[in-house]
Amino acid sequence: MNWKDIGKTIAGKGLPVLGNLLGGSIGEKAGNIVAGILGCESDPETVSNALANNPELFLQLQKYEMDHKEELERLQIQEAGIYLADVQSARQREIEGVKATGKRDWFLYALAALFVIGFFVLMALLMFRPIEENTSLVMVIGALVSGVTMVLSYFFGSSKGSADKNAMMGRRET
Fold it and tell me: Which is more confidently placed, 133 or 65?
């Protein structure tokens, strides 16, 4: 049991803000808040047991979510800031690599192409063969779909503008 699992349970009970915070990068901090509300130790197992043994505790969490909406929204903004800092860090790594070597990272492009080509090859094969109930095949398809989604988001999604801006800034500095 971990905070993310508890977050899914809580979100499923109509507490989306607390649930998302528990499932995010600041899950432990949100877990401390939930444990404080419930009056138990701050570890996922104890919180899970408390919620399972007393369903009325969800009402306390619901009241807390309504009463402290602004504080919880600030935590969501903090979590978004952590995510954006991570994205910026990846962008900065790419710029620093170009500055140091004078070349783009060909491995990044090769890996992206591998995911996209692998996805389309697998989809073409699946058009001519029925899918059997094979867990490993479903896992491969899931990995390729998520990988292709990330590749497309990086090269063509909302982060593309940020990458272009950073590349232009990197060119001016060299």
Answer: 65
Pair 9, 66 in one domain: yes
**pLDDT recorded at residue 174:** 43
pTM for the full predicted model: 0.50
Q: How is residue 4 written in tokens?
A: 């993310």
Full DSSP string of 59-117: HHHHHHHHHTHHHHHHHHHHHHHHHHHHHHHHHHHHHHHHHHHSS--HHHHHHHHHHHH
Domain limits for position 127: 104-173
Structural domain tally of the chain? Answer: 2
Does 125 map to a domain?
yes
Q: What is the pLDDT of residues 137-154, one digit of tens each?
A: 778 888 888 888 888 877
